[in-house]
Amino acid sequence: TGDERRRAHDALAELWREQPDRCAWHLAEAAVGPDEQVALLLQQTAHRSQRRGDAAGAVAALVRAANLSQSGEDRARRLAEAAYIAAEEAGELRRASVLLADARRTDPGLAYSLHGAAAAVLLLLDTDGDVNTAHRLLVDAIETGDHGYDAANTGLIEAIQNLMLICWFSSKPAMWEPFYAALARLRPEPPDFLSVASKTFADPARTAATALGEFDALAAGLRDVHDPARIIRIGTASVYVDRLADSREGCWHLVQQGREDGPARRHLAALMHLCLDDFLTGRWDESYELAEEGIGVCDVHRYRFFEWYFHYNLALIEAVRGEFDRSRAHADEMIRWAVPRGVRVAELFAQHPRVLAAMGEGDFESAYRHATALSPAGTLASHVPHALWVILDLVEAGVRTGRHAEAAAHVAATREADIAAISSRMALLQNGSAAIAAADADVTELFERALAIPGADRWQFDHARVQLAYGEHLRRERTMIAARNRLAAALKTFERLGARPWADRAAAELRATGQTRPRAGDYARASLTPQEREIASLAAEGLTNKQIGERLFLSHRTVGNHLHRIFPKLGITTRAALRDALDAYTDGADQAPD
C-alpha cells in the first residue's frame, strides 16, 4: 500500500543517512505533502549533481523540490533554477521552456529573478531573439534583485557569468559597463574564474597580461576538476591568452560524454574550444571534423544560436587551404544570421576568414579592408579581442598596399599594449609584424627575434608565415642561401598543413632564389594527410561515403569534404580515377628522396 511504501522509504532514508543524496530522495518519496526541510535537502542534492556533471539529475531533484515547497515563491524559484540548468547544461530547451512557464504561473514576479532571467535569456537566444533584449533582461534582474551582491549566491554568479557572454556577443564597449559594475560590487570577492575571465576574455589587449598569474593558479588545478561548468569557464578564460591546451583533456572528456548522450551544451562548448586550439596549433583535419560535429549537435538539440561559431571554424580552414568560395559562403552565412539579432561578435569573426582568403588570393586591398573592419589601423579596438588575431594580416596587407604609415601605427599600438607579454603567439605576431613594417636596418634582427621566441613554433601556420616573410626579405637583399633555408622551412610547414596558397607563394619565392621547386607529385604527397590517404584508399575500393564514415567513425559529410580536398591534390576529378592516382602517388612516394 501507499502507507507501506512511505514507511519503507522512511526506513531506507534512515539507513542512508551517511549518503545525503540517497537519503534526500527517500525522504522525498516518503513525504505526504509539502515539506520545506526535505525540499531544501533535495535542492542541495541538485547542486551536488550539477557539480558532478549530472545536469539531468539536478533538474529532476529541483523539480521534486519545487513540488515539495511550502510557498509559491520557493516553488517558482526552484522551477526557474531547474529551467536554467535544463537550458544551460542539459540541452533540454523544450523542457526548460515548460518549466519556466510553470514557474511564471506560480509567481508572475519571477521575471525579475536571477535564474528566471538567465533561463529566459538562453531560451530567447535560441529562438531568434536579439542580444539587446537578452542584455536588458539580465541587467534588470541583477540590479533589482534582493541578493546583496553576495558572491556565494549561485543564481547571481550565473546571471553575471551569462551577462559577460552577452556583452561579448554584442562587442559594444558600452554594454560591458553593467557587468563591470556588478563584478565590482560582489562581496567578499568574485569567484576566481569570473575574475580572471573579466580580464583575459573581455578586453585582453588592455588587461590580459595583468591576469596571467591568476590564470596560472586556475589552470594548475584543472587536472583535478570534474565540474563541467568550471572546465568550460576556465577554457573560456584561456582563449585569448592562448592557453586552450590546458583544458584539452577536460574538454575531450566532455565531448565523449556528449557523444554518449551527455549534456549537449557542455558538448558544444568543449567542441568550440577544441576547434580553436586545433586550428591555432595545426590540427586542421581534426578541427574541421569537430566543427562539423558541432553543427550536427546544434541541429539535433536545436541550439541554433551556436551554429555560427562552427561555421567560423570551417571558414577558417577552407580559407587557408585555398577553398575560397566555400570559405566565403560560410562567412556570408554568419553575417546574414548575426545582423538582425545584434550578434556583432559573429559579424566580426566572419571578417577573419575573409582576411585569410583575400591574403591567400593575393588580394591585399580586400585583406586590408576586412582586417580594419575588426579594428582600425593604429588601434586595438576596445572589447574586440579578436582584433589581436589579425595583427599580422593587417600590417602585411598595409605594407603591400602602400599604407606604410598605417602599418607602422598598428605595430606601435601592439607595442604600447605590450601584447607580447600575453603569450608566445602574441609575441610572434607582434615581432613578426614589426619586422614586416620596418624600413631600416633592424629588419633582420626583428625577424630573428620573432622566430627565436620560445614556443613560437607551436603556432605552426603563424610561424611559417613569419618565416615566409623573412625569406622574402632575405631574397630581396640577395642573401640567397639564408633565404632558401627560411623559404624551404616555411614551404615544408605549409605543405604539411595543406595551406596550398601559402605553399605556392613560398615555392615561387624559392624558385626566385634559383632553387627548383618540388615536382607536383612531391607537393601532393606532402599535402595529402594520413587520414586523407586512408579515406582515398577506401573510396578507391568502392566504399560509399557512409560506409567509409562508419569504418572511421566520421560523418558521411566529413568524408565528402575530405574527398573534395583529395581530388585536386591527386590531380583528378572523379572517384573512378582514384585507384590509378593512388598507385602513382604510392610509386612516387617510394621513389622520393629523403
- Uncertain runs with pLDDT below 50, 5 residues or more? 518-526, 590-594
Instruction: Profile the largest sheet.
Output: none
Q: What level of helicity do the residues show? A: over 70%
β-strand amount: under 5%
Put simply, the count of helices is 33
Query: What class, by secondary structure content?
Result: mainly alpha
- Provide mean pLDDT, rounded: 92
Describe the structure.
About 55% of the residues are buried. The longest helix is centred in the first third of the chain and has 19 residues, at about 70-90. This protein has about 600 residues and is mostly helical. It is globular. The chain has helices at about 1-15, 20-30, 35-50, 55-70, 70-90, 95-105, 115-125, 130-145, 155-170, 175-185, 190-200, 205, 210-220, 230-240, 250-260, 265-280, 285-300, 305-320, 325-340, 345-360, 365-375, 390-400, 405-415, 425-435, 445-450, 460-475, 480-495, 500-510, 520-525, 530-540, 545-550, 555-570, 580-590.
Can you summarize this structure?
The protein has helices at residues 2-15, 20-30, 36-52, 55-68, 72-90, 93-106, 114-125, 131-144, 154-170, 177-185, 192-200, 204-207, 212-220, 228-238, 248-259, 264-281, 284-301, 307-320, 324-338, 344-361, 364-374, 391-400, 404-417, 424-437, 443-451, 460-476, 480-497, 500-512, 520-527, 530-540, 545-552, 556-570, 578-591. It is an all-alpha fold.
